Amino acid sequence: MRKPDDVHEHQVLNPATEEVIATVPAATAEDVDAAVAAAGRAQRAWAALAPGDRARQLRRFAATVDAHLEELARLEVREAGHPIGNARWEAGNVRDLLDYAAGGAERLTGAQIPVAGGLNVTFHEPLGVVAVIAPWNFPLPIAAWGAAPALAAGNAVLLKPAETTPLTALRLAELALEAGLPEGLFHVLPGAGPVAGAALVRHPGVAKVVFTGSTAVGKRIMAECAARVKPVTLELGGKSPNIVFADAYLEAAAAAAPGSFLDNTGQDCCARSRILVQRTAYDRFMELLEPAVRAFTAGDPADPATRMGPLISAAHRERVRAYVPESAPAAIRGDAPAGKGFWYPATVLEAAPGDRTATEEIFGPVAVVLPFDDEADAVRLANATDYGLSGSIWTRDVGRALRVSRAVAAGNLSVNSHSSVRYATPFGGFKQSGLGRELGPDALAAFTETKNVFLSTDA
Ligand code: NAD
User: Fold this and answer.
1) Is 264 a domain residue?
2) Atom of ligand 1 nearest to the CA of 135
């Protein structure tokens, strides 16, 4: 078996066809050294610009992304297997984030704090060079969630995309140059996690690490950062509940449920993969859920009618199969194309609370359904997990919606919907789902250090 250090390039496959669509060189530790040095130089000049000039350049970058939206979306379809409608949203999310973050560059205001004997002010200083280590499940948006606010706050960004999905990241870096961003300021280092990723995490010239990926790798990165007292933002896994009370509009809850765990073929850290249904409504809900799951058609991701694409890779499909073989008994099972491509059908299991399928993140199009008796039981079940990323609550009782929202230990909850991600609202996890927040009005602050300066008026 080859050690990660022996890998000099990665083949990129189209997961819907298994065709090799590109071969990308893998960055070495020496490449990381050179990129950090260049990024450091670029960052000093970037931070010295007037905030309005930084904002203007980022808006140009946003406009360039906008002009290439369809191209980026089609690249995401080819390398990640996302349905074209989703991929267009993802490319648009990058543009929107750049625009939103650009607005923050001129609003990164400090405070004037009343003290005796002088003037006390605070500054939000950029950190320097920031490493963004991205996963394969949403290659475009997650790259931008870290990069856009970090750049707006005056930092340089080195982006390490996942081995399987480097192409949109590489294209984004080209577009940044085309838009006029300085060379070295936003640079992409494709390569193996344990090589290029690990070198970035350990590099003394990297001031912060933003990592999105598995909880296991996140813990290792946090330990490496702890040894260097390096700040880290972690966006990790999830096993989020979709809580359906008997008083909910059951038709609406059942119609929305498939999208909440099948979107992106379940490869979504916010997937509502535990459906908790009040016992008195359980049978009716299951009756309504079955046709809704079946209608969530899997097929060619380039076809606008397709709702669900393939899994990302053969290895990932094996991980999903290790939880649930396609032959295992299921309450509901959808159809998936046969032949080439890493296909896996939509699957709903009736499970017991302690089952592995009910406690571990499968990261595929699989949900478990569990009954509950009352509100307290629903909250207890919802919180019976090491994760705490998202969750949904379906009820017509406003008081209950708020009580349960406050009681569920998760960072992103939605009532009578499955919304998790908006660029203008904060996103992140409780418990082992992560550390820190991305997006929202405070996104830039996470890429700064607060400096306090006191000017004496007595001298
Ligand atoms: P992963 O942890 O294997 O890889 C993520 C990234 O880390 C990749 O770029 C990889 O190359 C890199 N990496 C791997 N080992 C490394 C190391 N030792 N040092 C530095 N970098 C390293 O995760 P994945 O399989 O790509 O993504 C799936 C996981 O990500 C799921 O568990 C999912 O829940 C999680 N995820 C979470 C969020 C969130 O926002 N909370 C979003 C997307 C994905």
Assistant:
1) yes
2) 26
